[in-house]
Specification:
Helix content: 40-55%
Number of strands: 9
Shape: globular
Order of helices and strands: EHEHEEEHEEEHEHHH
Radius of gyration: 16 Å
CATH class: Alpha Beta
Structural class: alpha/beta
Number of helices: 7
Number of domains: 1
Largest sheet: 5 strands, parallel
Length: 214
């Protein structure tokens, strides 16, 4: 049985936007693992609209406060789709900067905790672009996200960090668009599906079975 504190650092899909139960995939995932006997603490550090630029500025303080030295902990990053988003005609975070942001994050975080990275999910392009609560017009395109996804996957591999390529897993799947609440954020069925995929992922299973640094 694993005993572990887990920080999930990401964006709106991490913080369960679109899910009236407010569980999202992290809540569903850890609920299933709790039923299996694991002793896990969930810290959801998702921020709506966040990018790798935002994560680079906040991850260390937020995770450090929740994963004190001597306690078994790990960090799951789930970030990147907002970087590839066009906002009012401009890409929010250029690819080279996004990769540099996460290179610095992974280098520092890996020295302290085990890490996982959950990649971005496809959007329903027929429901793009989307107007945000702040009034921004944001347009997400799967082909553009795929360029970032490939770079993230390669970067994670260079650090030996397990990377779950959800874009490849779900792209072209006829069921996925129906599992989105608004064309971007999953509905409860979508979050349930994400949790099931992540729970079966070798990277996740190894995290629960391997030694944890504190």
């Amino acid at each position: 049985m694993a005993s572990l504190r887990l920080c999930f650092v990401g964006d709106s899909i991490t913080c369960a936007t679109g899910d009236p139960t407010m569980l999202g995939w992290p809540g569903r995932l850890l609920a299933q693992e709790a039923k299996a006997g694991h002793d896990l603490s969930l810290y959801n550090l998702g921020i709506r609209g966040d990018t790798t630029r935002g994560v680079a500025a906040r991850w260390e303080a937020e995770c450090g406060a929740r994963l004190p030295a001597g306690m078994a902990g790990a960090v799951v990053f789930a970030i990147g789709i907002n970087d590839a988003t066009e906002q009012d005609g401009v890409i929010r975070v250029p690819l080279a900067e996004a990769v540099a942001n996460m290179r610095a994050v992974l280098a520092a975080a890996k020295a302290r905790w085990p890490l996982l990275w959950v990649g971005p999910t496809p959007v329903d392009e027929t429901r793009q672009p989307m107007r945000t609560e702040e009034g921004f017009l944001r347009d997400k395109r799967n082909a553009r996200t795929a360029l970032y996804n490939t770079a993230y996957r390669d970067l994670a591999a260079s650090f030996g960090v397990p990377y779950l390529d959800l874009l490849a897993r779900l792209a072209g799947d006829a069921h996925w668009p129906r599992q989105l609440a608004d064309g971007l954020h999953p509905n409860p069925a979508g979050y349930t599906r994400m949790a099931a995929i992540i729970r079966d992922w070798d990277g996740w299973r190894a995290l629960l079975s391997g030694p944890k640094r504190g």
